[in-house]
Amino acid sequence: MAETKKTTRKKTSRKKTASSKTKASKPKSWYGRRAVYIVDGARTPQLKARGKQGPFSAADLAVGCARPLLARQNFDPTAIDEVIMGCVMPSADEANIARILGLRLNCGKDVPAYTVQRNCASGMQALDNAAQSIAMRRSELVLAGGVESMSRAPVLLNNHMVNWLGQWMQSKTFTQKIKTIGTLRPKFFAPIIGLLRGLSDPVNGLSMGQTAEIIADRFNITREMMDSYAVQSHQRLASAQDNNFLSEIETIYDTKGNFYDHDDGVRRDSDMNSLAKLKPVFDRPFGSVTAGNSAQITDGASVLLLASEKALKDYNLTPIAQILDCEWAGLEPAQMGLGPAHAIPPVLKRNKYSLSDIDYFEINEAFAAQVLSCLAAWQDEQYCKEELNLDGPLGELDMNKLNIDGGGVSIGHPVGASGARIVLHLMRILERTNSKRGIASLCIGGGQGGAMMIERV
Fold first, then answer.
1. pLDDT given for residue 155 in this prediction
2. CA-CA distance, 329 to 319, in Å (whole number)?
3. Which residue numbers are catalytic?
4. Separation of alpha carbons 170 and 162, rounded Å
5. At the fourth CATH level, which superfamily is domain 208-245+324-456?
6. Is the pTM of this model over 0.70?
7. Model confidence pLDDT, tens digit, residues 175-205
């Protein structure tokens, strides 16, 4: 029987204090004395957008991976205390997609659910919120993750048309309606593409690709370096598929009987020559960021099951990993791609670790230029001192520890889901390689960065 849920919840906040620092010899969770565990997780294949609406709505994607995840557990869905999901661009029928997910999974009408939005890190924000809820004893078992159907991003009416429609609704007589029709102009029909607006910063007017060009110039990241990294991403994903390293993927089926069981954006024939033929997209004609060395527009979902130690005992669950720490950082929006460079060092410092103490990293590949710039920033003494408040360079990251099964360039970047996907896959990497700890991180549109450290149990 599921425990009775409280209908009122007291708002609390997490404070960073000296007492929450972690000793390297015996790690404790940044969330306090109450540990937060990851029991299991699943995701859909990442399906590349191909110029039209994809086969699945965001809610369908979330259900597609969450349902088999719960089906293999030894408790009823009503045992879940909360459902938390990240989503950036829900459809008009999916305003609170977490609630839709909870109801469709038969978690019960009394199980609360809410949706969070932190741009590219919305899925990681959902995990952070879930971990806090468990740490503060508000919940014992939480389903959390992220979802995005980017191919179904809304297309909106512009202000001219919105105002005209308002005038039309107020026109009561035939004469008034004829007069209103006479004010209609061709420019009123120009649509607003939600996806393009969402990938632009409303404060500085820059697209995310333009911010990638800015930091690439700052750290001398060349076109050849970007393309080489992109080729590596596709090669690593292809290898992971061939070796069945993506066991977290659940096959999903559309209404026409088609099935989808793998990330379909991988380009196995990708090479430097083919990428060199692509023209820059964001800074024509002189830029270096192209469609080939940028993340793909993709649909996908990822969900994880988080539990307290009490839930582990109550439901006889075996945890795979523990969430140890999470950090959110802010920086200049025009250099948003450097978010991981800002978010990861505080995690390392609090836990008294260096880069070499972390077995594997998952840094979301929004752009090849962005990942490479983060690595360069950590080796730049001036940047580390002036921007990161470090005593010197953080150091060089071993590329054999980074995104070993590919990343956003090859897998895709469904913005609401990626933060959860990289944590989920990092957990599977630690499990597969019998390794200890890892850090997942993302840059965030608007000038932020997020990082989460987990440790295999």
1. 82
2. 29
3. 120, 413, 443
4. 13
5. Thiolase/Chalcone synthase (3.40.47.10)
6. yes
7. 999 999 999 999 999 988 777 777 788 888 8
